[in-house]
Amino acid sequence: MSQDDGSAPLAVAFPESAEQVGLCLQFAAAEGLPVVPWGAGSGVCGAAAGRADGLALDLKLLRGVGAVQDRGDHGAVDVGAGVLGQHFEDALETQGWASRHSPSSIGCSTVGGWAAGRSAGQFSSRYGKFEDMALALDVAAPTGAYGTGEWASGGRDLHEWVLGSEGALGVITRVRVRVERVARARWLRGYRFHDVAAAWEVMRMLLQTELRPCAVRLYDAADTMIAGKGTATKPASSGAGWLGSLRALVDATPALRRHALSLPLALPRLVNGIVQGLSGACVLIVGFEGDESEVQASSAIAAPLLLAGGGVDLGAEPGEHWYAHRHEVSYKVAPIYSHGGFADTMEVAALWSRLPALYAGVRAALGRYGLVMAHFSHVYREGCSIYFTFAGRGSLDVYDAAWQDALAAAAAAGGTVAHHHGVGQLKMHAAARELAGIAPLFHALKSELDPAGVMNPGRLFPALDEKGPRAADVPAVVYGVDAVSRVATLPAQEAAADRDARLAAQGWRLRHPVAGPLVSDLSRVAPDDCRVVGAWATIDGRRAAFLPVPRSSAGPDPRRILPQSSYEALTVPVVPLGAAPVPQGGR
Ligand SMILES: Cc1cc2nc3c(=O)[nH]c(=O)nc-3n(C[C@H](O)[C@H](O)[C@H](O)COP(=O)(O)OP(=O)(O)OC[C@H]3O[C@@H](n4cnc5c(N)ncnc54)[C@H](O)[C@@H]3O)c2cc1C
Fold this sequence. Notes:
Elements: E1 11-13, H1 18-31, E2 35-38, E3 55-58, E4 69-70, E5 75-80, H2 85-93, E6 97-98, H3 111-117, H4 124-127, H5 130-133, E7 134-141, E8 144-149, H6 159-162, E9 171-181, E10 185-193, H7 196-208, E11 215-219, H8 221-226, H9 241-252, H10 254-259, H11 262-266, H12 268-278, E12 282-290, H13 292-308, E13 312-315, H14 317-324, H15 334-338, E14 341-351, H16 355-367, E15 371-376, E16 383-393, H17 396-412, H18 428-434, H19 439-449, E17 480-482, E18 487-491, H20 496-505, E19 508-510, E20 534-539, E21 542-546, E22 567-576
Parallel strand pairs: 1-3, 2-3
Antiparallel strand pairs: 4-5, 5-9, 6-9, 7-8, 7-9, 10-12, 10-13, 11-12, 11-15, 14-16, 15-16, 17-18, 18-22, 19-22, 20-21, 20-22
């Protein structure tokens, strides 16, 4: 979607410490100057775009990676918010640790930016998204500094508010990050499936049998074919197949090369149809890492499941190839611009039960405007994200229309409009609709921390509608078990005995047992675990709903931290009655 023009700011400041950030913010508040925190500027939704009337705070001088504190099954380390991802990883490696937060943008994004936008890395299925790894934050606001998470003091903890707040609640100056020991063993393998639905079943099964793969990446038929995974129609060893030959011909013929992209970009429906019609076959990459024994045990369970689910073993090569090139994939769209086209990506997520509708709906919407392909690379027990790549030709209006339609399709399918790219200007209205219930709370908190309203104004949520969300806009609670996604929507205040008996009668129990009503224990469990998947509540007399989704980056996520008495219903993970107990408090 078109965004503002990213004008050069009035001034750029390079603070070197949290204290200097604080001074800048006080100055800006006194002068009424909008402040845009700038990590590395890799955000793709326009959250950090410059503004001619404001001050840009380039945070890259907030440096320093501390010594890792060994906490037994994991480590913790304090890092300056301006440290670039790859520098962070390099510094950890010298100590024998790794963050395993590995976004494609690891070389051009900062630790503070990851927290501000709820970023996701390529190993999220095992280690969680960045909000799951960020243990504590130091924040500088115009009204003063505060700590969140482990550093919070007093009764109030703003951790879940600041994560995903995109600079609107202050500048994150330091992050305490959960880190992992460098893995001693890794197993990576590719499998070909007849179609995405067959692969989804196996992915879901892998996660729901409590395996903890570090990588689960499925490329749909178009992505497998167009992006040249080369394994959809033939085994990996036989090269890139017909597409490879076609590409070689085009590369060798200058006249063809000049027009190679023009035709498909101009006729997206035709080309989408051809690609889909040729083959539905797609490639799934699965990986495990950790101790030798864990990797062996996990892969010994996973491999037969993958074959039984219809997977054809393509060997180690597709996985090894992806791993070696995993940070390159996002930088390949330049030829499309030079052919006068547009290209973009959109990441959404939904429960497993809604995934087929989300995939079909968004693909159909984008397919009207451009070539569209997708991969599925952030996989959870409850659901999965979809990363669409689309490319087409046309004016800015066409590009905007494609975004509007796709966002509407995602919402209609019950998905979140943002899984890890955040909100910015691009998804501002869609995210505000999704989080209608918290917008008033967010604005109230903002005016407390930033009374002059200078922190990245007008980017994350539009100004508050005076009336707030209307009761009719809030979806009604639908109680019951979603067996596919293994979640149940239950009354939040119900006595444990009644709740557990009702669940048991249907063959289920809570994944994380709670002795009292659900609201009595909403604590975090483990980084790869999501305890509250959805919530319905009444806040200050207004009903609010937080869509049940596996993870979201559509702004802050307070679904676990509202006042206990405000909850009406909660969507929480469940497991079949006979399932083995899940380890609590760790992994
Ligand atoms: C090629 C490419 C690949 C990408 N791949 C991924 C991927 O795999 N996974 C993923 O999650 N994202 C990916 N992204 C998106 C992007 O890297 C993330 O959104 C990242 O979190 C942004 O970090 P940044 O430091 O560049 O933040 P910026 O773009 O500078 O800022 C993003 C937002 O955060 C705010 N902000 C930045 N730092 C702070 C701070 N210290 N305190 C408060 N607010 C702050 C800014 O004001 C802005 O609102 C990719 C982007 C590109 C260009």
